[in-house]
Request: fold
Amino acid sequence: MRKTTPSPAWLCAAMLLLQGCGGYPRDADRMSEHAAAYGMRVGASADPPWVHVDADGRVSGPEAELVQRYAAARGYRVHWIPGGHDTLMRQLEDAQLHAVIGGHHADTPWKPKVGWSQPLRLRAQDGDGPMPERRIALPPGQSAWHLALDRHLAQEAAR
Reply:
């Protein structure tokens, strides 16, 4: 039986492929770099008591506070983009936004089209009744961005 050695061309191709594997997970659209340079663009759909959008565009509520803490921990500014849920979700699907908060329901048609954070550990403001499962919508194909937010949410939940 004759042993063959790989050709130099094959070795070169293998080296190039392995070099391309570094730095995973990655973001298809460099979401983290964009947030650091220009700030986070976060869509906000009014969904009291979790997300409040004032007439002047100011956004508040427990979900907004989570986003603010995530941004502050990384030195990002937050640019709130108030709007209708479907319009914001289309922008998110096209990676024009870093996240969308508020307005998500369990039967949303957006489930297969975008990414979703781990469940948020929010407390009911009145303390009564079951807590609905809340998540932040994330742009699809942004693995590093998604992982960073989920890690932050896990740290928040551990406090």
About this structure: The radius of gyration is 20 Å. Helices lie at 8-19, 31-38, 62-74, 85-93, 143-158.
